[in-house]
Amino acid sequence: MISRELRILLWVLCVHLAGIYLFTKGFLLTRLALPDRGAYASTELATHKRAVLLVIDALRFDFIAEYPPEPASPFHHNILTLPRELTAAHPDRSFIFNAHSDPPTTTLQRLKGLTTGCRGKLWGSSIHEDSIIHQLNAAGRKIALAGDDTWLTLFPDSFQPNMTFAFDSFNVEDLHTVDEGVIDNLLPLMRHHSWDFAIGHGLGVDHAGHRVGPDHPVLRVKLEQMNHLLRDVVAAMDDDTLLIMLGDHGMDKMGNHGGDSVLETMSALWVYSKVPLSLPEHTIPDAILPTITFPDATVPHRHVQQIDLVPTISLLLGLPIPFNNLGTVIPELFNRNGSSLQKAMELNAAQIRHYLDAYRSSSSGKELDAAWHDFSFAWDDIDSMDGNDRLIALDIFTRLVLSACRVLWAQFNIFLMGAGLAVIGLSIVAGWALYSKLRDVENDEWEKWVDDKVVWSFSASAVGFTIGYPMHIMFHEYLDGIATHQTMLFAAAISSLLVMITATRPTITLKSLKSLPIFLILHTLCFASNSFTVWEDRIVLFFLISSIAPSVITGFTAPTSRLRYRILGFSALFAVCARLMAMSTVCREEQHPYCTVTFYASESSSAPPIIALLLAFPVAIGVPRVVRRILRISKSDSGLAATFIPLLFAPSLIAGTLFWVLEWADSAQVLGDMGDVLRVMRTGLARTAAAVMLIGGISIWWTSPVCLAISKSQSSGASTTQEKTEVTVLGFANAFGSPYLMFWLIFLSIVWLMTQLSGQIVLGLSSIALLSYLEIIDSVRDVHGLNAAFTSATPSSTLDLTNTNRDLVFSEIVPLALLATHTYYSTGHQATFSSVQWKSAFVLGKTLSFPFSHVSVALNTFGSFLLYALAVPLVVLWNLPPVPHPRPKIGASALRAALGMSLYFAVLAFGAAACAAVLRRHLMVWKIFAPRYLVAVFELGVVDVGVLVGVGIGVGKVGREIGRVFGKVVDT
């Protein structure tokens, strides 16, 4: 049977997910993709019968630039030189461009844009709207593919079976298989003209960037290989073949991508033909030839939008332009006579105008109302122009539409956003009501009280879900863009929350208002400012150290020197650990030049710094020793702890550290050409460590979790000869906390395995900070107990050791929530897509495999929140003895702690969502506010799961086992 704690926390998780779903659906909407197909093709503009599209994944513009940034890198500059050599020799048929890749700069999204001419949908895989691939198939053209199998995901039935050579794209550690597959299959295809459009997509450059960063000899080798491939392709081309080489996106200084930084969005584009495409006697207006300067470069270069390739290739091959295209033809490639460029631009503008008319006639047409006047004015202006002015007017129209539609691609549904905020907001009120009321419920009544609330809340949700359907039918005219199931979900969540709030009837007093958590309020308000959000990692450090200031003040006023030294000593240790953790940093783009990367060896490398390599093993060895030393204070290092820590926990940490040392040795080729051997070794090591802890560790803990040493002895009193049996129990004072800590250590070892070396050092410091904090709050409670006894009329009863009432206050939970966030930032993460450490996907295998790779990345990214959600019951369990009178309300206290932790992150999620909603038209919404909202909701989800597992499973098992050992005197 599911425990009542598990049921109530499951309800909390469900309402949070409902609110998150509703808000996210309203906030992250995608554009409407029209099903129409482009129909008009111009054969007079066609110049080639065939084309080769060679995608070199993550080929940044400066990798092929004639004038790269200064100082030039020996690892990625002036290596892939064929494009600039041919451009210098044949400027009429070789063209290099700096192409802007629309974010998110991921391969799947960029291929959608490269084939449709518009920004791809954020969700979904296969492409059903019009694209250049669909136009090729409709024209009976044969398409060949060699390389990245993402193309098959997007266009599953579009390639010739006998000319399709697809390779796995997710094995980041494999730098050569896909590239060699392109070389081995694309070049033989080019010798036979049985194809019309050949795609080659290599991944070695991208994988090298992820693996070792751009400033590494491995990337130089890959670029040299691509340069040789280009020479072979050019040599195999005939006059009827057009070559387009491009990077689908760039890479940042670390070699990662996915965001919208300049380095990620500036990709390379080279177009080459063996027949002239542009004649020098015909000039093009400078107004339609924009330039841009690459960061740290001195010479500007021609700049285009990456989606401009779609109409350009379509017309050069005699195909209709895809219907949804918003790109503009590249002028240089149509500058052959006095009319070809104008003809191409007119066809392009007419296609875009046709798209706008169709879009305005659709159900989403009113989205264009605000910009329609500008569109019409720009379109009408074309007719009044001729010559170069007409070309400029055509360019202005197409670029105006692109700029306006980029805004439309991020339309918001205010109803859904408001519904989501309402659900999340009411969930906070309901959570606070539960948290507050549980403190006042009598020991013997809390179980029935919780059971009643669970039944009522789930019943109300069922009723609300049922009523939601007729409500949607009645008001659907006013619920624009809201689906039936969304109305039903909203009704279910709101009904359940209102019933819970009404049933608990929280009382608001002046005392409760004075105890509002100031750090939570300030933390949430940070999301209203882009600068505060950017520097959240530094702000959290200040909040974290400040949060223990009341404990330090209590330490100075402690009535005994022992308590004073304990509080001040552990507070100092806590602060030192927090400050040392802050020395590990990964910088956001907006933090430069005031931030220096220390998590990695440099900002352009993904290797660990030397200090991490030196300290990794000492920390892995030291953490188990510190844990045992802390347990020894309460003599709880016996029983399970005596064997679990040295025989399971300590070896698992060493194995996790050894895995990443071997990964570094493989990447740096320290041991020469032993990559395959090292891969097998570390994969086996990781799988063994994970299996031992998850299967062996949990099994042993479940069988006998107690950390007690019980001994019996016979003694006789001075006044009697009858012997008495004396029972000595070592670890009695921490009977609940120590076995739960063993449970927590299992999860720490798994997160440790998924974390890189610098992050492991941070996790070690964070674990020590956690144990220090537990000792701090235990000592502070002792101080309060002594002070209460000194002022009480019955000091003996106040000092009674059997009084185990733990009146949890929210301020005791705040440092753990802040420590979780601080650990997140210190383990190499930021609220940016590019900070995701994709290496962790390959801890348990050399290839991407569901669900192991996905879980590994999730644990690497959000493991700190899972750990501290699991750790929050220790706030009430630590140094809690299992005395018989009165029966300690362990379950209720742990549930309150879990609700408090969930409340903290629910408020953060609400604040992030509200600020993202209010600032949805802010310049930085997609760069700062939206990513922070996504991180906040993932934090909340992970915390909800963590407290559910910790309280529902860990605390329940510990309580039952301690009750069994001590004669079932403990109420769980």
Secondary structure class reads alpha/beta
For the largest beta-sheet, the strand count, sense and barrel status come to:
9 strands, mixed
| Counted beta strands | 11
Low-confidence blocks of residues: 968-972
Count up the helices.
33
Straight-line N-to-C gap:
14 Å
Could you please describe the fold and organization of this structure?
It is a single chain. 56% of the residues lie in helices and 7% in strands. It is an alpha/beta fold and 972 residues long. The strands form two sheets. It has a nine-stranded mixed sheet, with helices on both faces. A two-stranded antiparallel ribbon has the order 10-11. β8 (291-292) and β9 (301-305) form a beta hairpin. α25 runs antiparallel to α26 (737-753) and α29 (814-826) runs antiparallel to α30 (852-871). The longest helix is centred in the last third of the chain and has 41 residues, at 925-965. Residues 968-972 have low confidence and may be disordered.
Question: Could you list some keywords that capture this structure?
Answer:
972 residues, alpha/beta, two-stranded antiparallel sheet, 56% helix, disordered C terminus
Brief rundown of the structure:
With 972 residues, the protein is an alpha/beta fold. It contains 33 helices and eleven strands. It starts with a helix and ends in a 7-residue tail after the last helix.
